[in-house]
Amino acid sequence: MNYQLNSIQEEILVGILLGDASLERGKSTYNTRLRIEQSLESHKAYLYFLYSFFIDMTKTPPASPSRNPDKRTGKVYNSIKFQTLSFPCLNKFYELFYNNNIKIVPVNIAELLTARSLAFWIADDGGKSFYGQTILHTNSFTFAEIELLQAALLTNFNLRTRVEEKRPGQWIIIIPVKQETSLADIVKPFMPESMMYKLHLPKEENTSDSE
Prior knowledge:
By secondary structure, the chain is an alpha+beta fold. 33% of the residues lie in helices and 18% in strands.
């Protein structure tokens, strides 16, 4: 299928691939599809917002699969997801973000990461600490890859960050509130409304305190 991504789709794709979104490609001779899954209870509006950007690449609308209770907690964690058809235009992103079917941080991430990408990265897999700091859950990446991300955030947006090891070999990136240019000013024009609570905003702007 000769579909071409527009620049907005590409910027969003970079952000969500740093988060929870995934690309699937059976063989190097096959084309690639995008798969997005989020919590049904808290992120349904966000998933449908993402779907609106990629709807032309899909065949079926988002759906919530049946799930069995979690063996550890006994709870049922419902999710909602959609996936695109397979397209050649997604192949280059698979080659950038995957190595031996494992998601990686591209070495040229600084060239790819825009303000819109950062907004969707935070929306997709970010959080806010008790002190208002933004947390990027980079647990699946290596420390060298996290250093690449830190360098990109500093070079592209002048954002100072620090790293915390949450578990052995698993780190998160923390963006402190105090910056020369506030994180909110950088990403707010692109941030999905339902995810705005992940940013440190003045009280009069922060209309949503929870998911």
